[in-house]
Amino acid sequence: MNTFFKKYSVLISAIIAVLGVYIIMNAVGITCPIKYITGISCAGCGMTRAWLCVLRFDFATALSYHPLFLLVPPAVVFLFLRKRHPRVSKIALIIIAVIFIIVYIIRMLDDGCNIVVFEPKNSLIYRIIHRVI
Predict the structure, then answer these.
(1) Measured torsion, CA atoms of residues 40, 46, 48, 54, in degrees rounded to the nearest 10
(2) pLDDT tens, position by position, 68-99
(3) Residue 116 and residue 121: Cα distance in Å, rounded?
(4) What is the per-residue pLDDT across 21-63, written as a single tens digit (0 to 9) for each?
(5) What is the rounded distance in angstroms from the CA atom of residue 36 to the CA atom of residue 126?
(6) What pTM does this model have?
(7) DSSP bridge pairs for 118
(8) What angle do CA 36, 119, 35 make, to 5 degrees?
C-alpha cells in the first residue's frame, strides 16, 4: 500500500488540490470557473449535477444535466490503461473527445437547453474590460 501512495502521490495531491479549490469556489458562489471567467459553458457543463443525481439514483435527471455522464468512467479507465495499451486508449479517448465536442455543439445550439449557455456579458472578463474602458 505504501508503494501505491509513492507511485501516485502527485496524482493524489493534484486531486486533493482540485477538490479543495472546487469546495472554496462553491463556498463563494462560483460553481464553474470557466463559465465564471468567460460566460461560456464548457463541454462538461452539468456533469457534476448529473453525477449528484446518479448518487440519488435519479438517472433521468442525470441525463438531462449531461447526456454523456456515463462516458466518464470508461474515459478514466482508458487514461489509466494508456501505458499498457497506448493505441487502444488513444483511439478510445479521441472517440470520447469527439463525442463530447459534438454533443457540446448540439447543446450550445439548442435554445431550449438552459444548462449550456453562451453569456459573455455575464463573465468576469467582460466586467473587468468594462471597468477599465
Answers:
(1) 180
(2) 999 999 999 998 888 889 999 999 999 999 99
(3) 15
(4) 888 988 898 888 889 999 999 999 999 899 999 999 999 999 9
(5) 10
(6) 0.75
(7) 40
(8) 20
